[in-house]
């Protein structure tokens, strides 16, 4: 496993990270989550990601049960605040929710601090000054080492940095966007000025587009698969044209390249993301030890993606 700096900053994360979205509390119980996390750690993964909104806090609780068995200094743990509950102050990026949500997350995680604390979505209903002052307070008080954003636009990130400079606040160091072969424009184009100007890193999620890039959906929705179990997720994929004949044909062509290179489609999709130098870590979502083993092999596959192979892949994706 290789470790990458988060942008220009000193924090180093494994280039493949371990996430808990959808899997924890749905596909994994605590014992199976523990087995997967230990397998990941054994293979060099030091970055573990969760959020208060994942299964209404259950994912944080489950991850906390496992994390206490590790040496804290060996880990980079992140969580995200936005969706905390149904109350009028349990949602969004107000100072009240950011502080109370973080304290509650730490209790569930059984940790004194997290390494990265993300604002899980932008909140246009709250002045950016209020949000950055709250995040500055959380970092300076020691409950987070760094802070970042998730699924913010480049303009929203720019506004945060401007506010931080004006208020003498600690600035965000990382963005967590969706990024995969089917979702590219924000990472590859919109954020370009942000990387250079502020030295921000990326911890990307949904690298396999909820399994579409594995090829498992090329001939329909298998019973028991993620899109079968989560109809709302399937509807989202339909709305985004991710299950169209054109898209699935592209996935099939990518699969042929993977087979020719001696790897699985999922491994090629992960290795393709790792070829992007702006990506600090790719967050994996797995439901079994076998799956984590298979995905972790992707970091050894990067060398197979030569310039010519990358051109061939991009020609398919852009066709």
Describe, in plain words, how this protein is organized in 3D:
It contains 13 helices and 10 strands. It is α/β, with parallel strands linked by helices and about 325 residues long. It has one domain (about 5-210, about 275-300): NADP-dependent oxidoreductase domain (TIM Barrel, Alpha-Beta Barrel). The strands form 2 sheets. The chain has an 8-stranded parallel β-barrel, surrounded by 4 helices. Strands 1-2 form a two-stranded antiparallel sheet. The two termini are about 35 Å apart.
Q: What descriptors fit this protein?
A:
TIM Barrel, two-stranded antiparallel sheet, 13 helices, 10 strands
Largest sheet, order of strands side by side?
Answer: 3-4-5-6-7-8-9-10
Largest sheet: 8 strands, parallel, barrel
Q: What's the CATH architecture?
A: Alpha-Beta Barrel
| CATH domain topology | TIM Barrel
Share of residues in strands: 5-15%
Number of domains: 1
The coarse silhouette is: globular
Q: Gap between N and C termini, in Å?
A: 33 Å
Structural class: alpha/beta
Name of the CATH superfamily: NADP-dependent oxidoreductase domain
C-alpha Rg, in Å?
19 Å
The ordered string of helix (H) and strand (E) elements is EEEHEHEHEHEHEHHEHHHHEHH
Q: What's the overall average pLDDT, rounded? A: 94
- Poorly predicted parts: none
Q: What top-tier CATH class fits best? A: Alpha Beta
């Amino acid at each position: 496993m290789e470790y990458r700096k988060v942008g220009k900053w000193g924090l180093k994360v494994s280039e493949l990270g371990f996430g808990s979205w959808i899997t924890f509390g749905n596909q994994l119980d605590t014992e199976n989550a523990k087995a997967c996390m230990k397998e990941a750690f054994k293979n060099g993964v030091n970055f573990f990601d969760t959020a208060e909104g994942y299964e209404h806090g259950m994912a944080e609780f489950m991850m906390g049960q496992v994390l206490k068995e590790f040496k804290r200094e060996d880990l980079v743990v992140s969580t995200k605040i936005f969706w905390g509950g149904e109350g009028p102050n349990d949602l969004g990026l107000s100072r009240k929710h950011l502080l109370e949500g973080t304290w509650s997350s730490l209790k569930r995680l059984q940790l004194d601090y997290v390494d990265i604390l993300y604002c899980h979505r932008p909140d246009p209903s709250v002045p950016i000054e209020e949000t950055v002052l709250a995040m500055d307070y959380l970092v300076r008080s020691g409950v987070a080492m760094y802070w970042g954003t998730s699924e913010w636009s480049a303009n929203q990130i720019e506004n945060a940095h401007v506010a931080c400079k004006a208020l003498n606040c600690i600035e965000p160091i990382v963005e967590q966007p969706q990024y995969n072969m089917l979702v590219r424009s924000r990472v590859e184009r919109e954020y370009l000025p942000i990387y250079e100007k502020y030295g921000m890193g990326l911890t990307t999620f949904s690298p396999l587009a909820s399994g579409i890039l594995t090829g498992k959906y090329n001939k329909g929705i298998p019973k028991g698969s993620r899109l079968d179990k989560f109809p709302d997720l399937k509807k989202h994929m339909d709305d985004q044209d991710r299950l169209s004949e054109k898209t699935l044909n592209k996935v099939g062509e990518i699969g042929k390249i993977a087979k020719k290179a001696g790897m699985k489609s999922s491994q090629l999709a992960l290795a393709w993301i790792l070829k992007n130098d702006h990506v600090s870590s790719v967050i994996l979502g797995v439901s079994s030890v076998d799956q984590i083993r298979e995905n972790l092999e992707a970091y050894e596959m990067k060398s197979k993606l030569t310039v010519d192979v990358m051109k061939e892949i991009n020609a398919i994706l852009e066709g």
